[in-house]
Amino acid sequence: MELSTAPTPPRCATPAQFPTPPNGTGVQQLFRDRYQIIKALGRGGFGVTFLAQDTLLPGTPQCVVKQLSPKVDNPVAIKRACERFEREAKTLSHLGSHAHIPQLLDYFQVDGEFYLVQEYVRGYTLAREVKRKGPLSEPEVKRFLREILPILDFVHRQQVIHRDIKPPNLIRCEDDGRLVLIDFGAVKEQIVECDNTQRGATTQFVGTLGFAPPEQLAMRPTFSSDLYAVGVTCIYLLTGRPPMEFDYDPVSGELRWQDDVYISDFFAKILEKLLKVSVSDRYHSVSEVTRALELEPYLDNLADCMTNTASSRRSLESAELIIETPRYSPFSQTAEQIRQWRGRLRKHQKGDRKSLLPSEYYSDYRYP
């Protein structure tokens, strides 16, 4: 599939006429003699997204037509935009081989406008789900993480940064319940960069304020930038509130969300690290987040298996058999903190609520 750069517009429509919803007479021309536009799905600074039907395929299946408008006049910039669009479209085609990413069906260029035709995923966004059903519970958000992280891992392995992960770009498919990641901002960014001689840097930002971390706002996104957006998405799912409604720490610049959720301290630690403003303090890869989530079921076993080691050490110390006291290993320290937490939990279950204060490492649940 080659990118068409022919200046001749489609026989059935001109760029000024494309695309239009059905008119009152029920008569509508086909775009490129193929796509019947049904309605607009969304409109933004980079173009418009339409729901359409592919009339050349059996059953006229529905598809999504995305119109990207870089609005460049410089012939050199137009040529560069065409080259980048073709390269990024081929990347999208490869990503579409994943079951949780829409398949790219076609791409072309008409009179300076770029078009992508993708698989239509029938379903509802996570933003709509929260508005209809209310915030999700901690187990439900953990389940979401276990769904999104493998998808993101696949994307990052292709050396692609999504740049715009947020609830409206995550669709729950009605047919099979799978989570689908849509609207890759990387394509928009590659095209808009071609116009950097005519526009200021502030107009080139690709992403969503509140979900994008500082380095992305500075036009230097990393793989960790997507992880930050995943963390903000988790907060939205837990609270039903967009990030711009939360206060920020005036010193660190980090989102203040801890008092608005009721989750285990273990999970809170994971979210806190996902939402670190500094890239160096944040998780650097999907695998790091996955390992952190997988640790939780083994916390009790870790505490039990370290009990004998810690108690033997204390006996030796009391008998003054250890001349120089070596430091606990990180596993020993963690096991000791878990035992302290379990002791407070038992007191709490007996009615002593004050005994269950947030520990340095693990606790049961946060209290308002």
What does this protein look like?
By secondary structure, the protein is of the alpha+beta class. The protein has three domains: 35-119, Phosphorylase Kinase, domain 1; 123-297, Transferase(Phosphotransferase), domain 1 (Orthogonal Bundle); 306-355, no CATH class. It is 37% helix and 13% strand. It contains eleven helices and eight strands. The chain has helices at residues 75-95, 126-133, 138-157, 185-192, 214-217, 223-239, 265-274, 286-295, 299-305, 307-318, 330-349, and strands at residues 35-44, 47-54, 62-68, 104-110, 113-119, 123-125, 170-173, 179-181. The strands form two sheets. Strands 1-2-3-5-4 form a five-stranded antiparallel beta sheet, with helices on one face. Strands 6-7-8 form a three-stranded antiparallel beta sheet. The longest helix has 21 residues, at 75-95. The protein starts with 34 loop residues before the first strand and ends in a 19-residue tail after the last helix. Mean pLDDT is 79; it is low at 1-17, 21-27, 197-203, 315-327 and 353-368.
Terminal CA distance: 57 Å
What is the CATH superfamily classification of the largest domain? Transferase(Phosphotransferase) domain 1
What is the average per-residue confidence, as pLDDT, rounded to a whole number? Answer: 79
Secondary structure: helix percent: 25-40%
Based on secondary structure, the structural category is alpha+beta
What is the assembly state of the chains in this entry?
single chain
Number of helices: 11
Secondary-structure element pattern, one letter each: EEEHEEEHHEEHHHHHHHH
**Which spans of ≥5 residues are poorly predicted at pLDDT below 50?**
1-17, 21-27, 197-203, 315-327, 353-368
Radius of gyration: 26 Å
Strand runs, count = 8
Shape estimate: elongated
In the sheet with the most strands, the strands line up as: 1-2-3-5-4
Major pleated sheet:
5 strands, antiparallel
CATH names the topology of the largest domain as Transferase(Phosphotransferase), domain 1
- Share of residues in strands: 5-15%
| CATH 2nd-level architecture of the largest domain | Orthogonal Bundle
CATH class of the largest domain: Mainly Alpha
Number of domains: 3
